[in-house]
Amino acid sequence: MNQETERVPPTGPPATAEPDSFPWPRRMTFKDMETFKLCELQYRFRKEKRRKEPRTVYQIVGDLTHMGAAEDNPVAREAQLQEQLLKLAPETRLATEGVVRELIANAHALSNKQRVKGKQKEKVLFVCEATVPGWVLTARPDETGLIPAEEIPDYRGKRSPEPGERPGSREHLHLAEDEVLQLAEIKSGRRLQEQHKKQLFFAAMVAAVGQTIAYNGEIRLVVRLLRGKTEEVFWYQHAATERNMRKAAAVIRKIELAVAQDNFKAKTGEHCFDCPYRKTCPAFEAWQKSRRQSSGKRSHPAEGARRGRGGSGYLRLRSLPKDPKLPPAAGQ
Length: 332
Prior knowledge:
The protein is of the alpha/beta class. The strands form three sheets. A four-stranded mixed sheet has the order 5-6-7-8. Strand 7 and strand 8 form a beta hairpin. It is globular. It starts with a strand and ends in a 25-residue tail after the last helix. The C terminus is likely disordered.
């Protein structure tokens, strides 16, 4: 059961936070927002760039998969993969390589099903102003592209066909939008999770408000599930923007209050085992001590058990050892 502490010892900003003394840039990503909602103290550590735990083997597999999926040139992709594999422990390198190659192949197979204009493989940074003064929202989907409307079977921007016009014909489809903006996220797992959808809807909101790419139609959202070799498709409608911007503003105001009061609440629970700051977190240490005293034994589950929860959609790597600590990938 989650436990929440009302206050942690002050270690950072002063009790009052003036606009020119805010401790970090007034910028919020989807990850920032969800981290604050999960645990305010973890959000603070994240923004203060505290030292993280080494990347786990599962995270490294995700890192390498995203690198390979973003590189179209096979020669460059192979060189990049070999360079990163050398950073892994020898006993895990062979099994890791096989998994990564499979996921990269699945990513390119799914991506190549569409003819995308522009630099789909190059991430686009979307930025918009929040409704709270001085704040901006940012999002960077794994893939951004413009899809010819006639190539999208589920395209909904259609009118009723004119007399003599065949429904679904090129002329019929093109009257609403010639091209459709598509945002895609690549996930290593087999099953869709609610957070996958929320992440893309946040990115679509930022894209719609900020107009980094001038586009006013509905936005096609795609989650590519590499383990399952499937895609899940959703559509973002502008009618949802105002409501979602209010939700983001509510989180921002809570962040400002926490900074002003120097009070970031720590919420402990099983999610703490996935926190990259747990080894230096006083709340985690106190929670673990309390659990050991109440149960008389350590309650830290094995890494493989946490990552292999049935039905959760997590990537299961049965052939990999359960050592959670491996050298980080480049840039981590």
